[in-house]
């Protein structure tokens, strides 16, 4: 059992790193996609709409498997010999793609809920569009998006467990190995649950702080 | 560089009025939501003039005002601001929308025209002072410290020195609109555009906003005011225009406009608003 404490610590590190990296990349992708979705260019908007609809409509597990095995096929073909995709990398890519699709829709809704008059006021002063984004849209959009983003981050932390299916040694995989080898499934899965619960609780606390930080003064 | 630009718009600089101050709009047409909102309007605003635009809702007066700083882009027609023709692409016959050709020019022109909106449109996450100073800082590159001084000056001018650090949510509608006026003033614009500035206010708050506007009019500023406040328009403006069906039906100095209107529609409009 003692050996598994070390393994759980390593698995925890992997899970946290995976969530943070794919969450950060996914939010960046989501912001870009939201901007594309709101673009005047119909082709861009339609392409982004296609992406978010497909990704949100397919189970995450399948996306992970497709990216893992598809990536292996593609890279092997490129190098002319069998190359196996790194499980962590496949995890980052698939979770980023998924997270980007969900946050894109969150950001898009948040931008649309900002009264058009506030953007017109910025334009009427002669502000450049990107100044309008930074001054008017982004700060208010983040505030509006925060509750939905909190939910999405919690989902992300839990979804990292799916990456264990392609061999990533995260919390979930450590628990599964321990459960099998020591024949104590309940102990190991309860331990894993506690770790995930700790992580999601921490995420909730952080988002509550952020919501307070970005609250509209005076409400 | 300039010559090249002039060449790309053949109409520019050929037989056009020399750098005349003020605003000139010619044959402005705009279709919105299947309605011909503007149907070839002609409008001139001379420096120092205070022009009130009146008319029933749907007559096109707000749309015309918004065309002057291109918040609404006219489908057809030309606009000169301070003698400079705005580079816009007309809407196509096949429904392609009108567009701005020179965004840099439009930003410069917008910065020279302050606009005050019906719904104030303050930014709720910024204090009154920040609402006023962001324009000078971001558009004119004025340093924060100097901008704050400028902002306090204009907040004092609208009687809100003590509200600099208040957020819009803590201000009454009348106070919010006065902050919005200070925001427009802080850009030190050559023209002020008012789009029904008192229409969203409770009746008891209208007076404080009109008093500020009257004081500005007394400074010889160029102002275009779309309004329903007939008494105010009569008292403050140097010229009044009546819009109906997407055209200016009648315009004259306020004395004639209100005392001896020519068109039957204007007579009816004035009678119904008495």
UniProtKB/TrEMBL annotation, chain A:
<feature type="domain" description="ABC transmembrane type-1">
    <location>
        <begin position="12"/>
        <end position="208"/>
    </location>
</feature>
<feature type="transmembrane region" description="Helical">
    <location>
        <begin position="87"/>
        <end position="110"/>
    </location>
</feature>
<dbReference type="Pfam" id="PF00528">
    <property type="entry name" value="BPD_transp_1"/>
</dbReference>
<keyword id="KW-1003">Cell membrane</keyword>
<feature type="transmembrane region" description="Helical">
    <location>
        <begin position="188"/>
        <end position="210"/>
    </location>
</feature>
<feature type="transmembrane region" description="Helical">
    <location>
        <begin position="12"/>
        <end position="32"/>
    </location>
</feature>
<keyword id="KW-0997">Cell inner membrane</keyword>
<dbReference type="InterPro" id="IPR051613">
    <property type="entry name" value="ABC_transp_permease_HisMQ"/>
</dbReference>
<feature type="transmembrane region" description="Helical">
    <location>
        <begin position="61"/>
        <end position="80"/>
    </location>
</feature>
<comment type="similarity">
    <text>Belongs to the binding-protein-dependent transport system permease family. HisMQ subfamily.</text>
</comment>
<keyword id="KW-0472">Membrane</keyword>
<dbReference type="InterPro" id="IPR010065">
    <property type="entry name" value="AA_ABC_transptr_permease_3TM"/>
</dbReference>
<protein>
    <submittedName>
        <fullName>Histidine/lysine/arginine/ornithine ABC transporter permease HisQ</fullName>
    </submittedName>
</protein>
<keyword id="KW-1133">Transmembrane helix</keyword>
<dbReference type="InterPro" id="IPR000515">
    <property type="entry name" value="MetI-like"/>
</dbReference>
<dbReference type="InterPro" id="IPR035906">
    <property type="entry name" value="MetI-like_sf"/>
</dbReference>
<keyword id="KW-0812">Transmembrane</keyword>
<keyword id="KW-0813">Transport</keyword>
Automatic annotation (TrEMBL), chain B:
<dbReference type="InterPro" id="IPR003593">
    <property type="entry name" value="AAA+_ATPase"/>
</dbReference>
<feature type="domain" description="ABC transporter">
    <location>
        <begin position="23"/>
        <end position="270"/>
    </location>
</feature>
<keyword id="KW-0067">ATP-binding</keyword>
<dbReference type="InterPro" id="IPR027417">
    <property type="entry name" value="P-loop_NTPase"/>
</dbReference>
<keyword id="KW-0813">Transport</keyword>
<dbReference type="Pfam" id="PF00005">
    <property type="entry name" value="ABC_tran"/>
</dbReference>
<dbReference type="InterPro" id="IPR017871">
    <property type="entry name" value="ABC_transporter-like_CS"/>
</dbReference>
<protein>
    <submittedName>
        <fullName>Histidine/lysine/arginine/ornithine ABC transporter ATP-binding protein HisP</fullName>
    </submittedName>
</protein>
<comment type="similarity">
    <text>Belongs to the ABC transporter superfamily.</text>
</comment>
<dbReference type="InterPro" id="IPR030679">
    <property type="entry name" value="ABC_ATPase_HisP-typ"/>
</dbReference>
<keyword id="KW-0472">Membrane</keyword>
<keyword id="KW-1003">Cell membrane</keyword>
<keyword id="KW-0547">Nucleotide-binding</keyword>
<dbReference type="GO" id="GO:0005524">
    <property type="term" value="F:ATP binding"/>
</dbReference>
<dbReference type="InterPro" id="IPR003439">
    <property type="entry name" value="ABC_transporter-like_ATP-bd"/>
</dbReference>
<dbReference type="InterPro" id="IPR050086">
    <property type="entry name" value="MetN_ABC_transporter-like"/>
</dbReference>
């Amino acid at each position: 059992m003692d050996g598994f404490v070390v393994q759980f610590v390593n698995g925890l590190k992997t899970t946290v790193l995976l969530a943070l990296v794919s969450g950060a990349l996914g939010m960046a992708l989501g912001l870009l996609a939201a901007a594309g979705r709101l673009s005047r260019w119909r082709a861009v908007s339609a392409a982004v709409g296609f992406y978010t609809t497909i990704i949100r409509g397919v189970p995450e597990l399948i996306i992970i498997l497709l990216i893992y095995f598809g990536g292996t096929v593609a890279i092997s073909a490129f190098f002319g010999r069998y190359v196996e995709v790194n499980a962590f990398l496949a995890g980052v890519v698939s979770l980023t793609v998924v997270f980007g699709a969900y946050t894109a829709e969150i950001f898009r809704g948040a931008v649309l809920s900002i009264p058009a008059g506030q953007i017109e006021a910025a334009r009427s002063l002669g502000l450049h569009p990107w100044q309008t984004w930074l001054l008017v849209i982004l700060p208010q959009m983040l505030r509006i998006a925060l509750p939905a983003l909190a939910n999405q981050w919690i989902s992300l932390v839990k979804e990292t467990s799916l990456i264990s299916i392609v061999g990533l040694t995260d919390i979930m995989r450590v628990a599964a190995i321990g459960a099998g080898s020591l024949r104590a499934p309940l102990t190991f899965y309860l331990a894993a649950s506690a770790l995930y619960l700790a992580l999601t609780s921490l995420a909730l606390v952080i988002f509550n702080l952020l919501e307070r930080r970005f609250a509209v003064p005076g409400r | 560089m300039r010559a090249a630009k002039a060449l790309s718009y053949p109409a520019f600089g050929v037989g056009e009025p020399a750098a005349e101050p003020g605003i000139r709009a010619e044959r402005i047409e705009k279709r919105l939501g299947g309605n011909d909102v503007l149907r070839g309007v002609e409008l001139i605003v001379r420096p120092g003039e205070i022009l009130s635009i009146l008319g029933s809702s749907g007559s096109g007066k707000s749309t015309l005002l918004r065309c002057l700083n291109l918040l609404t882009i006219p489908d057809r027609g030309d606009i000169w601001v301070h003698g400079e023709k705005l580079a816009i692409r007309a809407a196509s016959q096949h429904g392609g929308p009108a567009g701005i050709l020179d965004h840099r020019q439009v930003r410069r022109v917008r910065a020279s025209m302050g606009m005050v909106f019906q719904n104030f449109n303050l930014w709720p996450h910024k204090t009154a002072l920040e609402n006023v100073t962001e324009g000078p800082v971001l558009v004119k590159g004025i340093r924060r410290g100097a901008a704050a001084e400028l902002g306090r000056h204009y907040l004092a001018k609208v009687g809100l020195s003590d509200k600099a650090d208040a957020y819009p949510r803590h201000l009454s509608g009348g106070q919010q609109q006065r902050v919005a006026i200070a925001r427009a003033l802080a850009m030190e614009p050559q023209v002020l555009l008012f789009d029904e500035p008192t229409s969203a206010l409770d009746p008891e708050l209208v007076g404080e906003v009109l008093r500020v506007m009257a004081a500005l009019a007394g400074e010889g500023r160029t102002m275009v005011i779309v309004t329903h406040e007939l008494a105010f328009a009569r008292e403050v403006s140097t010229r009044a225009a009546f819009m109906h069906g997407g055209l200016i039906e009648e315009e004259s100095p306020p004395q004639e406009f209100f005392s001896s209107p020519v068109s039957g529609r204007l007579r009816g409009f004035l009678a119904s608003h008495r």
